[in-house]
Model the fold of this input.
Amino acid sequence: MSVEDQIKQLGEARKLVLGDAKLYPQILAGVIPIIGKDARVELRRWGADFLAETFASPSLPASQKETLSLGVLSVLRFMIENVKEDPGVVKSVVQTAASIYPLVLKWM
Done:
């Protein structure tokens, strides 16, 4: 599948969660492998933006954000530690990290 087709499908998944926040756990679980370590920059960029939007969303309850935040830490870490990472990805990762910081601290 081409990157353009994947981004189109990811956009459809985004529309689903914007319409029904209860779908975030399932959609996020499907998105993480697509935007991970071996993903092309276009997919990482889309994914980082999606994560930032997800954890800033007022429609997603804080309790659910807390649970979901633990599942995205590894992909955020990979993205931020990649010295050649796209600046747009880094920006969205920092936004996501700022949103989940207080949620993750509860687990420490």
Observations:
- The helical segments are 3-19, 24-35, 41-56, 62-81, 87-105.
- Residues 62-81 form the longest helix (20 residues).
